[in-house]
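User: Could you go from structure to sequence for me? I need the amino acid at each position, not a summary. Structure tokens:
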């Protein structure tokens, strides 16, 4: 595989790091320092795009961090048009899971690849539909007791124990975990940052 070894993942999320590691791309991790605030009048798509761009741009703007391509991403769960981010406490996690029980929701992940050399950023949003089975009070309480929901958008992890709730999924799986890998790798390839497979010579 050809690569410039110049890719930086601007994220503190172990899930994003694991996803990018899976395809064998060399990169470094530098968490960004962007507050995940919601702004009035901003659509969910605009929200994840802004945060993805800001995360990539903030790390790219640090003079002491070497690298050329900076990846930022943000994931939210959308239910009835409202944003579910990470639950603040167990009561909020329970309320989120109750509101997702027996229904379909969407998971949106924004991603941004900032090219420090050209100063340009490619950013996009990927949406995945997820349907949960109806949850009992015991399942919700038991799942929260595992501790898994607390740092996850929508209070669940499809890659973890939370998969027991997932009846159906339509669209990108990695997008739900936190990084739409197919799209991110295709973007890196298009920008010339990486080439997963060379043409045979
Ligand atoms: C829905 C869902 C979310 N999540 C996680 C992915 C993200 O880490 C988290 C959403 O929080 P984000 O704010 O997108 O990301 P983060 O704060 O963890 O990391 P950073 O901003 O530094 O990149 O929810 C799962 O791990 N599995 C799931 O099934």
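Assistant: Here is the amino acid at each position, in order:
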């Amino acid at each position: 595989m050809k690569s410039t070894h110049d890719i930086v993942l601007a994220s503190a999320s172990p899930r994003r790091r694991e996803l990018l590691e899976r395809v064998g791309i060399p990169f470094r991790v530098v968490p960004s320092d962007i507050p995940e605030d919601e702004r009035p009048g901003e659509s969910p798509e605009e929200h994840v795009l802004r945060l993805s761009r800001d995360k990539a741009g903030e790390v790219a703007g640090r003079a002491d961090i070497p690298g050329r391509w900076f990846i930022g991403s943000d994931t939210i769960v959308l239910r009835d048009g409202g944003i579910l981010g990470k639950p603040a406490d167990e009561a909020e996690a329970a309320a989120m899971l109750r509101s997702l029980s027996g229904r379909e929701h969407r998971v949106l992940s924004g991603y941004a690849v900032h090219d420090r050399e050209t100063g340009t950023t490619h950013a996009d949003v990927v949406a995945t539909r997820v349907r949960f089975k109806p949850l009992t009070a015991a399942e919700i309480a038991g799942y929260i007791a595992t501790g898994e929901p607390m740092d996850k958008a929508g209070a669940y992890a499809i890659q973890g124990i939370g998969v027991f709730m997932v009846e159906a999924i339509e669209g990108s799986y990695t997008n739900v975990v936190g990084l739409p890998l197919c799209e991110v790798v295709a973007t890196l390839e298009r920008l010339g940052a990486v080439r997963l497979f060379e043409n045979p010579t």
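One structural detail worth keeping in mind: The chain has one domain: 2-195.
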